[in-house]
Amino acid sequence: MTILVESIGGSIRAGRSRWPVYGALGLALAFAVLASLTLGYRLYGLDQVWLALFAHDGSETATVIAGLRLPRALIAPLAGAALGMAGVMVQTLSRNRIASPDTLGLNAGASVAVVLATVVFGVGSLVGLSLAAAFGALVTSVVVFGVAAGAGGLSPLKIVLVGVTFAGLAHAVVEIVLTSNEAQLQQLLFWLSGAFVDRPISLFFNGLPVVLAGAALAFGLSSALDALQADDATAASLGVPLVAVRGMTFAAVSLLTGAAVSMAGPVAFVGLVVPHAARSLVGLRHRHQLAAAALVGAVYTTLADVAARFVIYPVEAPVGAITAVVGAGTLLWLLRRRLA
Amino acid sequence: MSEQALPRAWSLPGPAGLAVVVVAAVFVLLFLGGVGFGSTWISPDTVLSVLLGGGERTDRLVVLQLRLPRVLAAAIAGGAIAYAGYLLQRITRNELASPGVLGVVDGAALGVVLFLAIFSNESNALTVPVAWQPLAAASGAITAIGLVFLLSGRQASSTIRLILFGIAIAALAKALTTIFMLIGPIYQAAQAARWLAGAVNTINWGEVQIMLAVLVPVGIVAGMAARNLPPADLDDVSARSIGLDLPVYRIFIFLLAALLTAGAVAFAGGVGFVGLIAPHIARLLVGRGRVAGIVVSILLGAIILVGADLLIRVAFAPLEVPAGTVTAIIGAPYFLYLLMRKDNSNG
Questions:
Q1: Which of A6, A302, A330, B189 is deepest in the core (most CB within 10 A)?
Q2: Which of A57-61, A202-206, B82-86 has the lowest mean pLDDT?
Q3: Do A165 and B335 touch (CB under 8 A)?
Q4: 8 Å CB contact of A332 and B326
Q5: Which one of A161, A188, A336 would you mutate to disrupt binding with B, by most B Cβ within 10 Å of its Cβ?
Q6: Cα–Cα distances in Å, from B316 out to A112, B34, B306?
Q7: What would the pLDDT profile of A233-276 be if each residue is shown by its tens digit?
């Protein structure tokens, strides 16, 4: 299954400036955030948005924009950026292009941790939930990589099977917990399919430092990850401390996935789709892969969040269902292409 | 080859025969316990006498009307999914194959959710007879396995490809199910979520009868078709070289497995991991003989689901936790253990 590892030299675009790419992605992000503020069940003009954000007059329009639209316009890109970067690292770590926080079950692990923390241990604080989510993702990633290593390597088959198994397990645990807490069922069901609706803005300010910490760790590891991309022997000969780098990458992935899940629930397959787009834009250097994945992920989830308001209009679909449809399609396409 | 293999496959050697008897006895005990347990305990001998046509009026009412449909449905659904799992593992010669992994369960569930969404009126009542529900499940299941086959392309005989595409199709079906569930009224969505996790507590006699009417004929046909299953210890190349890897036959077996799964999922919901574990344990118990393998797989599937349902009634009553949650919690670690072993194929 080494065919899933691209040759490193092939797609590095040495010499060509990547700034136009970043510029375009930045513009796309600005456009997506504006769309998220203006489009929805009610349509608002840019002037109304401006007034609501910078000259809040207490009107209903201003309250809706500042209280309902703004949090999701901030949380969606942050969660998307976090999942995109986590996806890049997971794919490098497993040297497998269909790996992602979802196919490895990390989202599921984080979800279980959040549900258990809420319902069983009565954790109410947002900081507590973020920590629980990151802890759940960390435990799952260690178990999954342990299981996969014990299984003699991370073939694509084993990766997706392990992920599916953990997702099934997580679902069962969540179901049991929820059945005994009927009142929270409906709300948590929606949260569990991934959504940016009705999130307090404090979630954003709570998630931001966690994402920044994860991102800082990720960029710090970028040259080590470049070396790790080839194979263990090459990386070791380049003086990369394999165990330490793997451990710190786990930590970065867990922080990013945990932060995203605690803000939005498990938004499916973002970490699978985004790294592919990022690599095709900026090549294989991790410094650039991570930066582009953060931007692409932010744009992607924000636009998916806007789309979620319209697919079954006037009802709002969970954005996770939208990204799951796109992600499953991408998975099918990747499998067709790589295994053909 | 087949002349040599037939007598061995169709005879029950000593230890395997013993295992069949023991498993059957466990099933009977668990079944009687499942019917007997509830707000009032009814002893197994009373249950037995009621089932044979005797017993007091109140006992008859409780056993026949309230408890039997649920336990019977669990047994039938568990048995059918395990049977489907057995067929899939044998035809693909891979112990990781199962109705869940190949997308059949989620496909069937999507079929049912679509059916409920399209044919419900404002008061949440069905506008068509409930007997059509298995047909909806079957359409979904067959569409799913058909897509998996088509996408796998000319190398559909590679099990790894089938499983990878099966998982992708399952993810797609799951996402679509979530969206369609949200279109319906809120409380119906909560009900559907419970059903999707595999719950047998709301099943009534009419639904049990439909399940039997669908599954018994399919099961018999599958039993006849199973005579031509290639020996389990054959590798791909030899199977092809002696002409056992016929595409038409493979498709027929996949179709039968999809129908068995659909018949179970239509009313019992997406019961996880039963179709994966039961055939596997069956092979550990009785080896590779076909009749014993099928019988023990079905019995074990029934045991797992009846046992899971009994367990949640004992542990969580009066809450109705879906039985599928227990099978997933038991099944997932077992599956991880299977994955951890280095060699995952039978051949």
A1: A302
A2: A57-61
A3: yes
A4: no
A5: A161
A6: 19, 15, 15
A7: 888 888 888 888 888 998 899 899 988 988 888 888 899 999 99
**B contacts of A156 (beta carbons < 8 Å):** 164
Q: Can you give the three-state secondary structure of chain A, one letter per residue?
A: CHHHCCCHHHHCCCCCCCHHHHHHHHHHHHHHHHHHHHCCCCCCCHHHHHHHHHCCCCCHHHHHHHHHHHHHHHHHHHHHHHHHHHHHHHHHHCCCCCCCCCCCCHHHHHHHHHHHHHHCCCCCCHHHHHHHHHHHHHHHHHHHHHHHHHCCCCCHHHHHHHHHHHHHHHHHHHHHHHHCCHHHHHHHHHHHCCCCCCCCHHHHHHHHHHHHHHHHHHHHCHHHHHHHCCCHHHHHHCCCCHHHHHHHHHHHHHHHHHHHHHHHCCCCCHHHHHHHHHHHHHCCCHHHHHHHHHHHHHHHHHHHHHHHCCCCCCCCCCHHHHHHHHHHHHHHHHHHHHHC
Structure token pair of residue A242: 């394999």
Q: Contacts of residue A312 in chain B, CB cutoff 8 Å?
A: 179, 182-183
Give the CATH number of domain A2-339: 1.10.3470.10
| Proportion of chain A above pLDDT 90, given as a percent | 28
pLDDT digits (tens, 9 = 90+) for A14-40: 456 788 999 999 999 999 999 999 988
State whether residue B336 sits within 8 Å of chain A by CB: yes
Question: pLDDT by residue (tens digit) across A110-167?
Answer: 888 888 887 777 776 667 777 788 888 888 888 877 777 766 666 767 777 877 788 8
Domain boundaries, chain A: 2-339
Of B165, B183, B342, nearest to A151 by CB-CB distance is B342
Burial letters B77-106, b for 16+ CB under 10 A, else e = bbbbbbbbbbbbbbbbbbbbbbbbbbbbbb
* Tokens (6 digits) for A39: 């489009």
Name residues 271-310 of chain B within 8 A of A (Cβ).
272-273
In whole angstroms, give the CA distance from residue A88 to residue A93.
9
The pLDDT score that the predictor gives to residue B47 is 87
CB contact under 8 A, A325 and B153: no
